[in-house]
Amino acid sequence: MSQNNANVPVSEVFWSLVAKADKKFSKIRDLPYYERNRYDTYFDKVFRVYTQLWKFQQENRHKLVEAGLKRWEIGDIASRIGQLYFGTYMRTSGASYLSESYIFYEAILTREYYKDGILQDLNLANKQLRFFARFLTVCLVLNRREMVYQLVNQLKLLVSDCKRTFQDTDFKEWKLVIQEITKFLKVDTAFMNIRPLRYSLTLDLHPDNLPPVANVKRKLKLGDAILCSYHPNEVKFSELTLDNFRMLQSLEWEPSGSFYKSSGTMSTGTGQNGGFLGSNRTNYSQEISDPTLPPNPRKAVLYRPSITHFLAVLATVCEELPPDGVLLLYISAPEYNVDTVQPYTMHSDPASTLPPTYFCDNTTISPEKNILNSGYHSGGLNLGVKGNGGLNLIYPCDLIPFTRRPLFLVIDSSTSNSFKASIILLQCSYVNI
User: Fold this and answer.
1) What is the pLDDT of residues 174-197, one digit of tens each?
2) Which helix (H) or strand (E) is 325 found in, with range?
3) Are residues 172 and 249 both part of a single domain?
4) Which GO terms fall under biological process for this protein (predicted)?
C-alpha cells in the first residue's frame, strides 16, 4: 500500500481498485479483435490494473474477508482476468495467452468460488453458467477434451438444479447452449483419434528442414488470416462454428505435442502472468512455446457477418498487413443460385455518341474495363439468410481490390471454381492492361 493510502481502510482501497478495473474492462470488452494495432495499449493498461488488483487482494485477503468480501467476488476478478487473456489470444493468436486463460478458469472451477449460495441467488447462478460457457470455449480451442466433458456434465446438473429452484425463471437459453455443445462434440468426435490439426513437431518436420521453394522472388510469410463461415443450421458452439474451429487449429503450431501425451501430465512453474495465482500451479504455457518457430498468424474469426462488416474487416486487416505478410482468407458458405441474379447489363442511348455502358450492381464500368464480361458477378456465396435482396451475397468481384496484397484464398463451397476462374482471369487482365 502506498504512503498516500496508509490511513485509508483496506476495503476502501480494494473497492476503488475494483471500480477502476471494471471501468477499464468495460471499455475494451466490445472492441473488435481485428483492429489490433489501434487498441494494443488499451489492453496493456487493463492488464496492469488487474495485476495490481489481484496482488492487492492476495496480500490483504484476511482483512478483506473480515470486511465482507465474498468468494464469488474473488471469482469475478479471476474470471475477468481469464477473459482478458482469452481476448488477447484472439487478437494475437499467442498460445501462451490461451493457456493462461485456461489456468485462471481452472482455478475458479477447482476452488469453487461460485459454489456458496449458488442456489439461493439467481444472479450468482447466472454468473456460474456464464463461467461454464466461457471456459468451454477455451477448452475447445485448447483441445482439452476431458475438461470439456466434465464441464458439460456440470453445466447440465446446474441447469437442472436451477430449473427446480428458480421455477419462475426461463432457462431456455441455457438448454440451447447444452444442445449446441452436445451436437458440436458429437460431430467432432470423428476427429478425436486422428492426428491433431495443429502443426506438431512430434509428427511434422521443423520449418527449417522443409525443402526450399525454387525461383522465389519475394520471401513472404503468413501474417494474418480471416476465417468466415455461414451455413443454415450449421454446427457451432456460441459463435464458434465447426468450420472456423478446425481452420483456427490448423493455422497454429503445436511444437511439443505434449497435449497429446496419453498421461496428460504437465510441468509446474510460474507462468507469464506475474504470479497471479502463485507458483504452485500447472504451467501449460511452458509446454507450447518454442522460440525457434515463427509466431502463429493472427486470426480474425467472423460469425455470420454482414457483407459491409466483412469487407470492413478485410480492408482493415489488409491495411495492417506487414510488407512481407500474406493474408489467408477462408470462406465457408453455400452457393447462391445465380439464375436469379442479373449479370452485367448494357445500356446505350441511340442519340448519344458515347460508347455503351455496363453496370454491375450500382457500379458503372466501361466496356474496356469489363474484363471479358465473364462472371465476376456470378458464383456468389451466401453469408446470411436468403430473401433480403442479395445484401448477404459476396462475389469474386468483391475481392478484386484486395488482391493488391499477397492473398491466399480458400473457398470451402461448391462454387469455388467461380472464384478460382475469376482470380486467374484478373491476373491476366492486369497483364493486358
Assistant:
1) 999 999 999 999 998 766 666 778
2) strand 325-332
3) no
4) DNA-templated transcription
